[in-house]
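For the sake of transparency, this paper describes our internal protein records without simplification. An entry from our holdings is shown next, in its original layout:
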Amino acid sequence: MRITGVTTYLMQAGARPDLMRAKGADADFRGSRNWLFLEIETDAGVTGVGECSGWPRVVETAVQDLSHVLIGQDPARIDRLWAQCYRAIMGHGLTGTVGSGALSGIEMALWDIKGKVLGQPVWQLLGGAIRDRIPCYGHAHTEDEARWLQGLGYTALKTPFTGIVDLDRVARLRDAVGPELDIAVDAHGPSWMTPSDAILVGRELEAFDLLFYEDPVSPENLDMLARVRDAVAVPLAAGERVGTLHGCRPHIERDLVDVIQPDTGRAGGITQMRKIAAMAEAHGIMLAPHSGSLGPVAEFAALHVMATVPNALLLERIEDDWPGRYEVVTPVLKIEGGALALPMAPGLGVELVHEAIARFPAIRNVASGPPDDGKAYVPGTAEEAVHVQTRRSRARSLRP
């Protein structure tokens, strides 16, 4: 069997239906984004499906470039093909999330082909399932959203600090769901907090018994994360913005996090995800893959990984996503009791619905800046779009 072609499908995923319930700068995260799917075709009539993230519009070009490495090759030799693609990318510099995003979708599709040929789900080829159901956590901004997730059986939720720090919100959510549900806080920018502000916030968060405090500082400087790590008694999580085992290695080897969060669409592939999980396991670190902006194919791939690693914690899931999410693939995953059941079909267990994807052509792939409302940035500075900004002038927002 030989690879005969690689086809990409770039589409616009619309805003989530609860956009108006989002607060301030949070609304931008909850808006429109691109999804990039691909199919690898073979001369045996078997087609594998994958998904890439890490700036999908740019990743599409990378995949198309790498198709010249793949065509004519045996798709069963997954590790060798991954290594050849990785070598091809290195001439352009460090891999980054664009390169690892391309590798992720390609390798995902190769595993899908292998599973279909052998008549087995991918998790079976990875050593068999440790667990049959993968627990998930959802996103909540309001008490009503939190109670809704609780009613669906979720045992954990996450709320964002996107620019603004809202400790009052965390307090309200804790009161709404009681001690039974785990709560996580995602502090990613814009703008990023300084280490001293992140420490102040982290100490205030200690009172809420958090599951984890995610991305408290900018990801470029891990020494800043180390400062926070040494100063707060809250579990830390990070890793969604880096690709491959090499990108996650310093987080793990320096014991900077309690939870590592590789993104299934840009971590480098299923094998890279399992290598990251294995390294994390040796350090007592749990795996909770990022999925906040991903489409449905990568979610299937994450289930296969989470089923086969001992240190799986939770899978991030956007429960109330844009309605088109449930049209562009078949079958559609459904949460039951706060968990997703393992796919039982050969391969990844998911197929693209091409006609539905064609109804949503890609328009844009970069986020708009937040409004100048004093939440994401100090009033009058939003147009500066600084990467890191102190919260000291807004200190009252740092305490409930």
The CA atoms of residues 19 and 27 lie 6 Å apart. The radius of gyration is 20 Å. Residues 124-348 form a domain with the TIM Barrel fold (CATH 3.20.20.120).
